[in-house]
Amino acid sequence: MLLVIDCGNTNTLFAIHDGEDWKAHWRAGTDSTRTADEHAVWLSQLMALQGFKLADVYGCVISTVVPQALFNLRNLSRRYFDCEPMIVGESGINLDIEVRLERPQDAGADRLVNALGARAKYSGAMIIIDSGTATTFDVISDDGAFEGGIIAPGINLSMQALHAAAAKLPRVAIAKPQRVMGRDTVSAMQSGVFWGYIDLIDGLVERLKSEYAQPMTVIATGGVVSLFDGASRTIEHYDPDLTIRGLLEVWKLNGGAA
User: Could you list the active site residues?
Assistant: First the structure.
């Protein structure tokens, strides 16, 4: 089986593919100090619950925006799967995507992987929304190139900032309020963040579409975006497997067995 690892600033996703389908995936809080041995203990227990074992893994693909975490993730692959992992962004790893930024090296590995995942399923020009620590809006041209995009603070980051900077504002969970107008502090904060982000998403998507001046498919991914599914007027597809599909494409592009 193939193990793909998507290491973000907040969470790290592990998923296994058997050559035909995704069999399981798990999330852990990102901790760059977690050793290869600690990763292996945690992962082996979760795999066992699904009837798998570490020895079933024959290949590994890693994408990370946390450079400090890469050493231990690479060692996990070498020590427990007996294979050299493919690392997105490293020399020799082909992504088969043109980056049309002024500084192409600025394109984050996670954003390029999302573009590959989107191209494998959708066609034409696209806007990819990924909501995590940051909320990114990436534009993919109709010929499959990465054109650029927008980076905004993530919804959890905004919630934390409200609580940290205002002494009387509590820490609250993200939730869809029944009414736009809050009648207490908690509902007012939830409304401001939830509907504020809906309007941020819809407003920026509409501005991008106006600037790009052609039809564009809008795809959203990331755990937080699931809260907005059905509330946004511009999101057409919620695709939770977008990133791991992109990592599977990296594997195939670089000679990995299906």
Answer: 110
